Amino acid sequence: MEREVQVWSQVKHPNLLPFFGICKGLAQWPVLVSPFYEFGHVGEYLKKFPEADRQALTVGAATGLAYLHSREMIHGDLKVQNVLVDASGRAVICDFGLSKIIDQSGYTTSCVGTVAYMAPELFTVLDNDNPRGARTTKATDVYSFGLLGLEATDFLRTLLDGDSSTVFFRSMPRSGLNEDQRPPS
């Protein structure tokens, strides 16, 4: 939770969920306080409002991500469920629990997040040559954003008639690729 507070409290942008503070004593654990977004995440919003401007939502998420990257921050778990929609229909990125600040000690996170949105290079095997595994980067955030954008614009379902997880696992190669064979994010 400390890392999430550290990253989240440093960002102020219309396309990022505002951080109000921490509330202690209401529950067993401290609670992070932010505004409530009644429309929920982009996926829920688009089910309720299928005619919503999907491009504007995608551009809003891209704008929020660009701001994070301009501050040398990586989200680390960008997906449809981590983009809320505010009362004006604007996309707002949330959930900074896996976020990190580039080149700051204590913020080197190994590959974690939502498998269906992970860049291919995050699936490297831990071995003697790579003892800590793959690391999230701005490029892996952009890869995740690409999948989010495809899902938000309904392109994945239309093209492949399946959810992004199904599409992802169908596309995984049966055998691993060598580092030099893998396209970068």
CATH architecture: Orthogonal Bundle
Order of helices and strands: HEEHHEEEEHHH
Task: Determine the CATH superfamily.
Answer: Transferase(Phosphotransferase) domain 1
Task: Supply the CATH class.
Answer: Mainly Alpha
Write out the strand line-up for the largest beta sheet, numbering strands in chain order: 1-2
C-alpha termini separation? 29 Å
- Unreliable residue runs: none
- Percent helix range: 25-40%
Beta-strand portion reads 5-15%
Q: Largest sheet at a glance?
A: 2 strands, antiparallel
Query: Using DSSP, what is the number of strands?
Result: 6
Multimeric status of the protein: single chain
Secondary-structure class: alpha+beta
User: Averaging pLDDT over every residue, what do you get?
Assistant: 78
Radius of gyration based on Cα positions = 17 Å
Number of domains: 1
Shape: globular
CATH topology: Transferase(Phosphotransferase), domain 1
> How many alpha or pi helices?
6
Protein name: Kinase-like domain-containing protein
InterPro entries: Kinase-like_dom_sf, Prot_kinase_dom, Ser/Thr_kinase_AS, Ser/Thr_Kinases-Pseudokinases
GO molecular function: ATP binding; protein serine/threonine kinase activity
Domain Protein kinase: 1-185
